[in-house]
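Hey, resending since the last one bounced:
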Amino acid sequence: MEIAAFFLALICVSLNAKGHVLTWPFSIASSATYAFVFYGSGLFGDAALQLIFISMAIYAWWCWTRKVDVTSDANPPLLKQFGHIPKKMLVACLLVWFLLFIAIKFALANYTSSVVPNTDAFLTAGSIVATFMSAQKWIENWLVWLTLNPIYIGLYIYTDLYLTAGLYGLFVILCFWGWQQWSKKILEQTQQSNKVSA
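The structure tokens again:
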């Protein structure tokens, strides 16, 4: 089961790094598979997170495929553009991360036998925020994943999920690639916008 989840997750993050919409159906399949893997390893926060990921992947799939109206009636609706997170939303995301951490930590410590409630809660909360940021096509989501993934590596080594730990090592590399690819897309969008307005 872990092997199947490994490959599904690797395909998912690789597609996300390329900014391809097919990342989201693969995200749903990967999350469903990993829910079973994590539950069996006592990582209840991560197991529950997969169910949240499935819901958020559906939301992100919708965000990436819906047309967004532009200000000019002469222009047709466009797909959501890649970009940077607004400053107000950055503060909001950090606040949500903190509040989710407190709530998840309380739930794990009091209602489950989680072996690492603090780490599990921190990573779970951060992953929810990063996934939301990815759904909005904000490039800074890669910085959040770059913060989380090394901690995930240590967590999965601690819980004997060595294949998954290796996967998150690959994710660290993909964070840099994702940042590079999304930066190119933002630059291309800017250049196209400048041509239109010229």
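Helices lie at 2-17, 23-40, 44-65, 87-111, 117-135, 141-158, 162-197.

Sorry for the duplicate.
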